[in-house]
Design a protein that fits this description.
Number of strands of chain A: 0
Largest sheet of chain A: none
Oligomer: homotetramer
Strand content of chain A: under 5%
CATH topology of the largest domain in chain A: Tetracycline Repressor, domain 2
Shape of chain A: elongated
Helix content of chain A: over 70%
Structural class of chain A: mainly alpha
CATH class of the largest domain in chain A: Mainly Alpha
Number of domains of chain A: 2
CATH architecture of the largest domain in chain A: Orthogonal Bundle
Order of helices and strands of chain A: HHHHHHHHHHH
Distance between the termini of chain A: 57 Å
Largest interface: A-B, 54 and 54 residues
CATH superfamily of the largest domain in chain A: Tetracycline Repressor, domain 2
Low-confidence stretches of chain A: 106-110
DNA sequence: CATGAATGAGACTTCATTCAT
DNA sequence: CATGAATGAAGTCTCATTCAT
């Protein structure tokens, strides 16, 4: 089954953008990694920036495919949070390069693009807010500012990327997810 | 009161690097913002990269000056965390541009520099780990993996930047710090 | 008959470097003379310095192609010297610009490069020494310090460049070569 | 006896221009070597180019001071040539740096300046022509094209610079001058 | 007179993008 | 469709020269 050229380019883009960063990535290298000619990229993507955005979009979709909100609807909030954490951690572990781009990079082009990336993240975070609000409605959670809780949760999630990919923090995703959920649900206090 | 040229350039660098990102910032613009000639920057900094690093270093120092670890030694862990959060939030609010650089940007040059930035962050985080370990020793906190707690706390802290600076989330730093501390200490569960 | 781009650039480089000198030659002008874009040069040569060195090397090769040492082996030393002189003079006359670079310029970059050029010249001069030594061995020449004779001969050769190219000294190469050889062989004394 | 600033600058210029070449010499370094401020040079010389030319002029004067044409008038041509060679060789040996500039460098600025340097050299060479013509008039030399002889002599002289300064060819100036004169007067032929 | 901080024109070089093959 | 040779805009950095002190 031959892979489509577009697919090939996107994969190469993930590797090169991730290891070099947006500005230090060269179109020529992406083409080389994809095993095609430099000009061919422009048959599928109008510009470097668009290639980067499309790649990011596609990566976020891959990320979201891991979650299955419908299936989780029945579960209690605590368990749902744990699943989200676990899924995220596993994704980080298995897609180290890609994760950096999705959750960290921001020095790409200008304010405009930065806000676009921020918007992308917000969409993801909406789902967390939904869970939180439902948890409160069901009485499983204390009544708190949902915005505040969202920030806490997503921040915790995002922060896990660095030690896992940079330090090689080897911890079983199941254990990590369980412990984080435990702390967030029950607090640090003895 | 005449400002030193070096100081002037560093301030201009914060503005321009923050709004444009490292690669899209042009030396000429930094000079223009500083109100000096293009070549003058090179009298004080040998290269664009060095200017960026010096500026980041100085910014981190400014950030740390806000914390006074000695004074806090006597306080209970909960209160110390609250002070850290509050100080951080105020700093974000008052130095929106700068904060983005210190806590977010990572696509600057190559892997080497990325690791340098990561190392800088780790130093900061060491302080948080100390507090956590002391809290456990004193019996104020549950016995947990300090690494895990550190990630949770620093992640929560870092995550607060975005809504404050990008969305203009207007919430009193005191309230936000109190609520975050409350959740982390006592958990989300009802 | 389409010329290779590389060839085209080297030719343009000879013209521009010769008339402007290394440092005053601008890459843009070389490109213009070659009838190509500025960036194209860098597809064939990694830097200005390398272009200069490659051009010099190639020029020296062209110069050496004019000599055919094997064919000359049978001739008496006097005749061989005359042939060398004549060939050199004709080359100067036909490649005025190039000659200056090969035999005169030395203020290019630093000591290191200067020594490289000097080494290039020495190789050429080795051939003269061989002829001299053979002449002595055959008894055609007086017993003299070969180094001394080499300096004399190569100096005489090199010195002919200036009046020919700068003053337009119009003298038949055959006559000039014959007279120089005559003097060197038989002396100035009446 | 305090040296004049102008003198100081010229001396520094000789050292720096000689070791770095015209284009790689920086005004700041010349000032440093002279032990004065960068701006002071411009009190005495209007530009880098003028400083270079003045320095070259002065150096040529120093060179000429070594010759005393009046005293030599009575001597036979052979002896006068030997004296000229010997004086030249000693000067090379004692002023290695300076000699390179005077007799070799040509990649300074453009065609115009190159011709200026060439003119300077010609003046020097006029003296040689005079000697030759006198020698012929006196019947000490064969009747030859004086231009040709001049080229031969000055070329031989100039060529001695390289092995002396670059290779450290250690030969007594008296011996070298004697041998060169001998060859040129009596020829290479056995 | 002397200085050296400031300047900005100008050079080399990179690399996203185009387009003839 | 695919290619990669060609392009030139744009960026960093150097350094001769100026001028306020």
């Amino acid at each position: 089954m031959k892979k489509g050229k577009r697919e090939l380019i996107l994969e190469a883009a993930v590797h090169v953008f991730s290891s070099k960063g947006y500005h230090n990535a060269r179109m020529e290298e992406i083409a080389a990694v994809a095993g095609i000619g430099k000009g061919t990229i422009y048959e599928y993507f109008p510009s470097k920036l668009q290639l980067f955005q499309d790649m990011l979009n596609k990566s976020l979709q891959v990320y979201y495919q891991n979650f299955n909100p419908e299936e989780m609807k029945q579960l209690p909030v605590e368990q749902r949070l744990r699943i989200i954490f676990e899924t995220h951690i596993k994704f980080c572990r298995d897609n180290k390069e890609l994760t950096r781009l999705v959750f960290w990079d921001s020095d790409v082009f200008d304010q405009e693009l930065r806000e676009w990336i921020y918007t992308q993240r917000q969409e993801k975070e909406e789902r967390v807010v939904e869970i939180i609000e439902e948890g409160m409605a069901r009485g499983e959670l204390r009544e708190l500012d949902p915005m505040l809780v969202k920030v806490l949760l997503t921040g915790s999630v995002a922060a896990m990327w660095a030690p896992i990919t940079l330090d090689g923090w080897e911890i079983a995703p199941e254990v990590l997810a369980r412990d984080v959920t435990d702390i967030l649900m029950n607090g640090l206090k003895k």
